[in-house]
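TEACHING EXERCISE
Course module: macromolecular assemblies
Task: Read the component lines below, then compare them to the predicted structure of the full complex.
Student: A.B.
Group: 4
Components provided:
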Amino acid sequence: MGYPNKPHLKETIVLSQHFGDADARTFKGWTKRGGYEALSQAFKMTPVEVIEVVKESGLRGRGGAGFPTGLKWSFMPKEKKKPHYLCVNADESEPGTFKDREIMRWTPHALLEGTAIAAHAIQAEIAYIYIRGEFTEPWTIMEKALAEANAANVFGKIKIVLHRGAGAYICGEETALMNSIEGKRGNPRIKPPFPAAAGLFGMPTTINNVETLTAVPHILKRGAAWYKGLCLSNPKSTGTKLFSVCGHVQRPGNYEVTMGFPLKDLLYEMCGGVPAGRTLKACIPGGSSVPILNREETERTLLDYEGCVAAGSMLGSGGVIVFDDSTDMVYQIMRLARFYAHESCAQCTQCREGTAWTTKIMERILAGQGKMQDLDLLLDLSENMTGKTICVLSDSCAAPVVSGIKKFKNEFEDYITGRRKPVMVA
Amino acid sequence: MTVTEEYRAVFAGKVLEELQGILAKYPTKQAALLPALWLVQRERGWISDRNMAEVGEVLGITPAYVKGVVTFYTMYHQHPVGRNFVQVCTTSPCNICGAEGVVKALLEQTGAKDAGATSPDGKWTIIEVECLGACGFATPILINDDFIENVTPDKVADLVKKYR
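Instructor-supplied answer key:
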């Protein structure tokens, strides 16, 4: 359901069925809607059996990377010699993305149930749900739901702990998140070792996104074959996905569609298109870290992992940012670069210096002091920021810059040649 | 450090009990650092050097380490802020929906001179922040712990009146 909008006929409503329904937030309301049945079912299965079902369903991580969930779980040691941990990534901070927020806000028990099932599957005794500090409302709702569920003793031996972040985008990176829980600066760690070998507190750890875990109870209840059948294009992308649509659209919000759904239909039919009298100029389909698509590319994109790559971008987190023809692309790309410069943890030189210089050069262009060579300089910088650092924050800064220069070069040139008046002061 | 008055410990009585409850959730003491800092900020409004030293003492880590963590996370205040601390999202998705106009209206109507500065009456601090994770509800703002969606410049006057 595109809360706060009414559900659209073309949506496939699974995760978002109870968005906007406050009664579903309560333990009583949730169990009345069939909640926690999948968890009881999971407790009757062995961990390996649960992992097999999730593997078979084709579920892939919804946080951005799209790694197969069941496979990730299977990397955990089968024979338990040390404590195992589950981390739930609710540090949703990717510009354009606001789906996990709605899940926690409306269906907190769905996340708790998925969390407990995953903890059972990987034999973890504690699951830490890391919620970004700014999410004050989801935090209060999750806290209340957890207290109710604990009072009803539904989690057995599994302990679920809420952990509040304190303002750092980088803590959405899996190892940075673990450092943050440990009471450290949120610096990403060098891999290997991977979390399944040495993660939180140095112990075998699995980390999953909120939306990924929320899909799990549905898979257990309705079966892997049902989930696998939810597929409109590539069989490697199954299930439904929540797309958060924002920017220049008539009806922004969350929309749930089957994998492989045309982006064009999502934007024009479900979201009502761009404001009257305007035309679509560009779209970022998977949160600000993925390449920008022009109109033609946007209109032929199929929304799954492979479809977005084929169109020249990535599915990422499913945060769809829409820009109409009134947008100053140079200014907006500068804003995105500034975001990454602000959020860099500053460990790696390429990122610390690269994000700051990218922003500086973009601001110089916007102030009317750019040179034609600056475009090559930006591309050269981006090259050195891609694939060379501990995590991908630096790559994420380069993505909109490189695709922006490639697809909207004339707008950069207009500032440099003086055809367009400066909008910033040097 | 210049000591002007006797230091009143944050972690005493009920707050200490709260911290002990938090410690029970983690296998190490240090893991309670972020929650402990949240408790300090709730109790005192900001986190002073002396508070950091106390947190370090309680958790068995050095003040320098605590400061390193405090400075990493943007939500911890290292200086006193206005009674109403306002965070306005100005990242791209909100930016194209008019977020900069919201900042301008807030500054004008609260008397705060610039983003980050506190108004002369001590009531308001307005800051621009990066993505608040509610892009479909542009422009979202946080006034203290209240998350407010769909703010436009024309709604600012009523908000300022309500919190003043």
